[in-house]
Design brief:
The protein has helices at residues 12-23, 36-45, 63-77, 100-129, 140-144, 150-170, 188-193, 196-204, 214-225; strands spanning 3-6, 27-32, 53-57, 82-85, 132-137, 175-180, 236-237. By secondary structure, it is of the alpha/beta class.
């Protein structure tokens, strides 16, 4: 049975990804940092699945915590087959109002977190096994950039660059590396940053006329982790309803 490590797995897209892998028969280690109760609820809800779902608290910006999390996954499940780097934070506001600590925090979580988790897992067995899949969650704004979300855009563009470079480096080891770059998805993050009028304006810019669902992103991530996607690597796939083509 394969094992997937999903960072930021207690809410939004990450939560949907955890459910998708668990229901597909994977063992899943759900990483969370602050949303402990939500993580507990998910683990309890998935007790009847074929695979084992466990939770682990770790700040992806803290390498010691990340190393401990990966070590736990190796000990409990025998190794990690799939990494889903989903943990992320947003920041909305004018670039000229952006504080240096805000800038650093967004890049630390969204980009350095991907580095920490991926390198730790590769060093602790994934690379020597010469098999696996790494799926990084970026954003449509990592492709196009977004006004008033400069730090977020920069961090997500960095994830895309990391993906492409690492895909070439790991291809000889039979490890695929891809990025999913969602458009506007109906999650708590979106509803926290935008009011109802803003959401309606966003919908008008989407040819399909609606926000995406977290489960739609999760299905794509699950596909990229499957044997059906073994010849796909270094790609950026953006489920965005036609907003950017």
């Amino acid at each position: 049975m394969k094992t997937a490590l999903v960072t930021g797995g207690s809410r939004g897209i990450g939560k949907a990804i955890v459910y998708a892998f668990a229901n597909a028969g994977y063992n899943v280690l759900l990483n969370y940092n602050r949303s402990e109760q939500s993580a507990k609820d998910i683990v309890k809800d998935l007790e009847g699945c074929d695979g084992v779902v466990e939770m682990f608290k770790a700040d992806v910006t803290n390498r010691d915590e990340v190393d401990a999390m990966v070590e736990y996954a190796v000990k409990e499940f025998g190794g990690i087959d799939v990494i889903v780097n989903n943990a992320g934070i947003s920041q909305v506001g004018l670039f000229t109002d952006l504080e240096e600590d805000e800038w650093k925090r967004v890049l630390d979580v969204n980009l350095t977190g991907v580095f920490n988790v991926t390198q730790s897992a590769l060093k602790q067995g994934m690379l020597s096994k010469k098999d696996g899949a790494i799926i990084n969650v970026s954003s449509i704004w990592g492709i196009t950039g977004s006004s008033c979300e400069v730090a977020y855009s920069a961090s997500k563009a960095g994830v895309i660059g990391l993906t492409k470079g690492l895909a070439k480096e790991l291809a000889p080891s039979n490890i695929t590396v891809n990025t999913v770059a969602p458009g506007t998805i109906a999650t708590d993050m979106i509803f926290k940053e935008y009011d109802e009028n803003d959401i309606e304006l966003i919908k008008k810019d989407i040819p399909m006329g609606r926000l995406g669902e977290a489960e739609e992103v999760a299905k794509l991530v699950l596909f990229l982790a499957s044997d059906n996607a073994r010849y796909i690597t270094g790609q950026v796939i953006s489920p965005n309803g036609g907003m950017v083509i």
